[in-house]
Amino acid sequence: MRSYWTQSRSLFYSLIAVVPLLVTYEVGLLLIHHPGAPRVRNTADVILNSVLATFGLQGLAGLGLLFLIGILFAFLFFRQRQPDFEFSSQVLLGMLIESLIWGSLLAGLLGSLQTALVTPVPPDTPSQIILGLGAGLFEEFLFRLILISGLTPLIVLIFQTRKLTAALAAIVTAALIFSWFHFLGPMGESVQWNRFLLRWFAGIVLGLLYQFRGFGITAWTHAIYDVVIIVSRTVMS
Length: 237
What we know:
Structural class: mainly alpha
Strand content: under 5%
Helix content: over 70%
Number of strands: 0
Oligomer: single chain
Distance between the termini: 42 Å
Mean pLDDT: 86
Number of helices: 10
């Protein structure tokens, strides 16, 4: 059991675990796109693709290359720390089951408000589900993996505080930016303080989950939460 908790939290297994999210999202976007209509993508995806484009990496090929490089380096790092490491598909299965549990718990905690953590919000359910999967992947990559991982050592450096205190401050700050992000731009929602506070709280919960259970489980939890809320909202309407 200890081996599962360690391995499932690693970046190596996390990056492998989210590959199905990436593939389903990209294929789903192709299926829901109507010729002549503007392409709708998750806003965090657009931001990350814009950054990659400055390095000459564009579209699915650029993201795929980024993930392959990330998986390779994560594997080498993980192998160095655990020389007897052997890949186990059971770890990935366990991560999916654990994510289903966390996603259901989060939906039970916040579900009465029926708010999906996804932007932009298209009118039809299939598009919402596809963008919900993208939100789980790209928003967790941006706001948890990159932002929390970057802010934590920066806060330690500036304020000379303990790493745990810095991590908590980074989680709260990243959650604040995560919530604010959903109201930005022409595709953003109109500002409503109850939704802002909800997303801030959800961001803190996801940040804590990321800190203790890693990127892969957090990304799947976010995606599952969005899908549960979108489907239940559709059924109830």
